[in-house]
């Protein structure tokens, strides 16, 4: 009976060694696939998302500049309207 158990343990150990080798191969394949996916994700982010963020930033800057320019023009027009109102008021008192 002891000899039979020893043979069973040896067989079990052989099977575990084979399983361990297959797991190592699978781990290497998975590592390779993960590296490939990481590379593709990085390239996608650089090519698509990075460009979109740059475009969004440029659009925001342009919008801010146009808003500032419009505000400046409105301020100038307010001054001119104020001056014209003052002149009209003076002309109404004179006439």
Distance between the termini: 133 Å
Number of strands: 0
Order of helices and strands: H
Inertia-based shape? rod-shaped
Oligomer description: single chain
Give the C-alpha Rg: 40 Å
Mean pLDDT: 91
Low confidence ranges? none
Strand content: under 5%
The secondary structure category is mainly alpha
Q: Share of helix among residues?
A: over 70%
Specify the number of helices: 1
The biggest beta sheet reads: none
Outline the secondary-structure elements.
Layout: H1 2-94
Structure at a glance:
Helix content is 98%, strand content 0%. With 95 residues, it is mostly helical.
Describe the protein.
- The chain has one helix and no strands.
- The chain has one helix at 2-94.
- Helices cover 98% and strands 0% of the residues.
- The termini are far apart.
- The model has no long low-confidence stretch (mean pLDDT 91).
- The chain is rod-shaped and about 130 Å long.
- It has 95 residues and is mainly alpha-helical.
- The relative contact order is 0.04.
């Amino acid at each position: 009976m002891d000899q039979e158990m020893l043979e069973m343990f040896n067989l079990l150990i052989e099977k575990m060694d084979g399983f361990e080798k297959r797991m190592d191969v699978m781990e290497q394949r998975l590592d390779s696939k993960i590296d490939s996916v990481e590379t593709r994700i990085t390239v996608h982010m650089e090519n698509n998302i990075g460009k979109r963020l740059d475009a969004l930033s440029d659009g925001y800057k342009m919008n801010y500049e146009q808003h500032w320019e419009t505000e400046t023009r409105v301020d100038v027009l307010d001054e001119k309207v104020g001056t014209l109102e003052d002149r009209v008021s003076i002309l109404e008192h004179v006439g």
